[in-house]
Write a structure and sequence with these properties.
about 60 residues, mainly beta, 5-stranded antiparallel β-sheet, 1 helix
Length: about 60
């Protein structure tokens, strides 16, 4: 897993989905942390992951 320029790789390594508690995938192009298990993408704003379900985007899977 690779962190983008605004994300600390150590932080990314410990973050998990708040719904499923599974690891997240970093989507650099979209600027999101993706939970495949929950079908949610959490935004990253100003280098800070927003891990609120209310702020997440539903994935079209």
């Amino acid at each position: 897993m690779t962190a983008g320029p605004g994300l600390d790789p150590d932080l990314l390594a410990i973050l998990v989905c708040p719904v499923t508690r599974t690891p997240l995938r970093y989507d650099e192009a979209a600027g999101e942390l993706v939970s495949e298990a929950a079908g949610l993408a959490f935004p990253i704003r100003d280098g800070v992951p927003v891990m609120l379900v209310e702020e997440a985007r539903r994935l079209d899977i």
